[in-house]
Amino acid sequence: MRFILFLSIIGLFSFTKYDTKPPLKMALLKYNGGGDWYSNPTALPNLAKFCNQTLGTNFDTDYATVEVGSADLFNYAFIHMTGHGNVVFSDLEAENLRMYLEAGGFLHIDDNYGMDEYVRLAMKKVFPQQEFIELPFEHPIYKQSFEFKNGLPKIHKHDDKAAQGFGLFHEGRLVVFYSYECDLGDGWEDQDVHNDSQEVRLTALQMGANIVQYNFEQ
What is the number of structural domains in the chain? Predict the structure, then answer.
């Protein structure tokens, strides 16, 4: 598969600056069902810039948009999914996403509030035999360049529940990380979008950088 070739290229990637290496791109997942998959348009550019500054990565700050059923999915090592509402995967889309994840891909799902019940049903089509597992605070995703001793930070109130991080695994590798009751993506956005404090935005970006770093180093 094309993604395996892509992984052989990024296998040389490390968290030091390589000015001669072509930039990698993050991608935003476009899905059906009516949910606003396009939420938080400034989030990924800001996360890419922050990772470049703090981790020494070489991300293009212009992200790609990729559909669930597209072969282009296999060109990206980090895919972000967000929204507030309904999520629907066709059988072919679910199969394509499963193949991508099993081939070495990674999906970060960020509930922007209101998508939880829908995304769980959609991901059940992708991995019918699996359930989301809450990651313990000791999981290495919380202990990368930035340490989060109490797990995911709480960025926005939502239902005032504790933020939780869930995972789906394939052959022992974390292939999906789902941030719930947290809203990292809102914290990544430009300051004037949600008027979050600099402290809150920095916390969100640091956790985002941890997710990216863990994905490339696991």
Answer: 1
